[in-house]
Backbone:
């Protein structure tokens, strides 16, 4: 039985794909067999972040429509052998993705012995986002400490609680976690940015990771190397912690306080 | 940043953000799962009331509460303070 984790947010540009790529790599590095699926039909991007864009032959929709087998469409990662990527289709046909088709692919991945399936959701609350979360066991809600992102995340939490297979069947619910990205401890200390505690309090969820704002994220996507593989980077360490917490480990949050205060900040109370 | 800015103490914008979010999230959660007609009902009621009293759009609160198997539609309007304060 594989565990299906949706990485979602509502708002675009908060780091869903970066997070999907890093969580998938992190789980694979821990020996799990992982597939990561791009649900952003029409706007394929996970392949670029994963660095396998030139190896895409078949995509998610091809599998659903029976143009190829799932095995043919899965792209084996060159760095981690137990990690596979399923690219989104570039079709403009919004109905190409169907609930039955998605279920078929997820069932086949489970039968093939995948431990985890990471579903990289598109932004918004339309069909792609709906199908990305529909069969999920768990959800990682990616949020920036910023008003529109937090509000959209709450909207997504509402959908996770009502518009998923688990919710519709009743009994169990999708297990939800928050993952904060672009966090700036300096700006939090200066009162310019909401803190982890603030976001946690508003949304009422546990926090599975806090990723600091860092230029490393852009350089990683430039290079097509998931940022978690950038050993020595704070971002990589923060994602590594999040992966361990996903696997049930208890780890204290890192990179949430300012390393040290400058002279002026101390003098004037920052 | 100029040197003078170091001495100026501005309202921390993060606490403003948090307060605004706390309110809007609570409001949106209370409407969630309710019938889709609530926002339209709210708008139309607002138009009717405005024929008689000029009230702010956010002076109208609609809440749908479920208690013991029945649903109660709670509706309150805060009237402007002029000419004299009145309860809703």
Residues:
């Amino acid at each position: 039985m594989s565990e299906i984790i949706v990485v979602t947010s509502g708002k675009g540009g908060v780091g869903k794909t970066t997070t999907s790529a890093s969580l998938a790599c992190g789980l694979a590095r821990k020996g799990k067999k992982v597939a990561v699926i791009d649900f952003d039909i029409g706007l394929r991007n996970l392949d670029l972040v994963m660095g396998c864009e030139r190896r895409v032959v078949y995509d998610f929709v091809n599998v659903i429509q029976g143009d190829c087998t799932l095995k043919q469409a899965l792209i084996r990662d060159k760095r981690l052998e137990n990690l596979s990527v399923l690219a989104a289709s570039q079709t403009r046909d919004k109905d190409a993705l169907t609930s039955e088709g998605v279920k078929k692919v997820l069932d086949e991945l489970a039968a093939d012995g995948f431990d985890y399936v990471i579903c990289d959701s598109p932004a918004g609350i339309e069909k792609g986002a709906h199908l990305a979360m529909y069969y999920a066991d768990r959800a990682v809600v990616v949020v920036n400490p910023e008003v529109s992102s937090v509000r959209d995340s709450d909207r997504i939490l509402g959908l996770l609680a009502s518009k998923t297979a688990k919710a519709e069947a009743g009994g169990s619910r999708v297990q939800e976690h928050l993952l904060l990205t672009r966090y700036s401890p300096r700006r939090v200390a200066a009162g310019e940015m909401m803190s982890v505690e603030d976001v946690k309090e508003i949304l009422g969820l546990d926090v599975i990771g806090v990723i600091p704002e860092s230029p490393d994220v852009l350089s990683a996507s430039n290079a097509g190397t998931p940022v978690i593989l950038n050993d020595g980077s704070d971002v990589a360490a923060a994602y590594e912690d999040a992966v361990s917490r996903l696997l049930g480990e208890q780890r204290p949050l890192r990179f949430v306080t300012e390393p040290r205060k400058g002279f002026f900040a101390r003098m004037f109370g920052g | 940043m100029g040197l003078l800015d170091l001495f100026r103490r501005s309202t921390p914008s993060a606490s403003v953000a948090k307060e605004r979010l706390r309110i809007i999230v609570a409001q949106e959660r209370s409407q969630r799962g309710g019938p889709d007609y609530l926002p339209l009902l709210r708008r139309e009621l607002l138009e009717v009331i405005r024929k008689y009293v000029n009230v702010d759009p956010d002076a109208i609160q609609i809440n749908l509460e479920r208690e013991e198997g029945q649903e109660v539609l709670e509706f309150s309007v805060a009237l402007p303070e002029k000419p004299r304060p009145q309860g809703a």
Observations:
- The longest strand of chain B covers residues 60-67.
